[in-house]
């Protein structure tokens, strides 16, 4: 009688029994199928020990019975054969290192010390007797093998198949202890990361839109950015793979399509290169002012200051020709010296800055600069105090409050700039992933964006309301409205310079890494991801060259921020979150016409915000 017919005859006997007996018998018969597996294992152990091997003339003989899954055969690779593995290794394994690794060919690797009783030896079992009289001996066999139930414990886990590409992800998830932060630390991290160079341009943006319309636009954009950032977090929670560090581009590729993944990566590069350019312009400005002041102090060169504070650098306000416009230093030099020609803000200073900065960009890992992250928080705090003190000293300077309710035609300047000011969407998943209380992500995100909104509005509105000169004199870098003789302004410049000097290598490192990543995807060559100093120096030189060109020929941070913000905001704030939400609702069967129209309107708003930037002349 073959094994298949024996199995069928066993189950036919169940029909003749009562319900209770039938359930018990079915359970025992199911276990008997597993016992046949163990019989085959014992037989093959005997063959291996005797030196006969398990190979036939052509193919490998399966280690499992014909009724077991086909995947467990000796012809499979080691990673495919080892389906289960015990969490803790027995000390016996270290003592028997010289023995053949028989477990590599087994579907189970069982720790002996986990069993409540020793498994008896069945080397003398008559296999023919087991085959022909299986029904009579089944109960005895089940009793002898009952200890095997305790072998597979809660620590037994599935091993991943490397061909799938998870790279032992489940094992790493179990071993890794991800560092988590409290809600307070998470809120602070989002606030500190979102704060950027827009702080210096916020008063300028409010002047372009009007006071009260500017406040309203600020709140609306902040609400939209908070909502879309929360959409990204919720989509990642629903559709992200557990243990995989998914980002927005990965979600786009998973739900929307490969084109969305490529577009999101490209616009992430635009955000980073835009940030580098703005940082370079600001560092050049701060370095120029500090060295110019230091040179005048050391040489005792004479200069005539127009006013102590504040300054107006606008040509149409001062009524002077272009050659006599006040420099950002706030002074008129008595004559153009050699130093003035060598140390020029829009020609030589950006190049001198490259000599200092470029060597710092070629490190393989910029972890050293992450130690100075706290300097950014200190700089923002000092800037808040600086604006508060100046505002109290100046007092309110609004002649006609009714005009401040009017929406100016250039209000799109502020909307484009705010899209960059509240931009954190490309890394929001990474930042919030370390939150200890994941269920509070929505609350913590809202609080963080609320603090960001308060910071922007305080600096922008306080400076705008109290600025004693014409509001059109407000610069896109508010520190340009103060002369070098202002001690507090000089301290602010130095703090911001050192902050940007440590942040710039980090941003450039991320930009360089993304460029290599995009190149590897575009050319389908993973070697582009590998670090080499030749490639790093080449890319860094290109980035610095682009920054120098903008610092020399278009040193307007307000214009750069609004264009970069409108482009990146279209993709990360309006388009991709809306598409991801629509696709998620579609998968859940919860997409309605009203919801679809709402998200289409959001995308259309992002397009209008971008197009409107091209119709505004600074």
Describe this structure in words.
The protein has helices spanning 3-12, 19-50, 78-81, 91-95, 127-132, 134-144, 169-175, 183-194, 198-209, 211-239, 248-256, 258-299, 315-318, 338-342, 349-357, 373-394, 412-421, 428-433, 441-466, 487-523, 533-553, 557-588, 593-612, and strands at residues 84-85, 157-158, 303-305, 331-333. The protein has 23 helices and four strands. The chain is globular. Residues 1-7, 52-136, 141-177 and 316-333 have low confidence and may be disordered. Helices cover 60% and strands 2% of the residues. Helix 9 (198-209) runs antiparallel to helix 17 (412-421), helix 10 crosses helix 11 and helix 12 packs across helix 21 (533-553). It has two domains: 3-89 and 100-170, no CATH class; 183-615, Amino acid/polyamine transporter I (Up-down Bundle). With 618 residues, the protein is mostly helical. The longest helix has 42 residues, at 258-299. The protein has a two-stranded antiparallel sheet with strand order 1-2. A two-stranded antiparallel ribbon has the order 3-4. Its main location: membrane. It is a multi-pass membrane protein. Residues 182-293, 354-612 form the Amino acid transporter transmembrane domain. GO terms for molecular function: L-amino acid transmembrane transporter activity; metal ion binding.
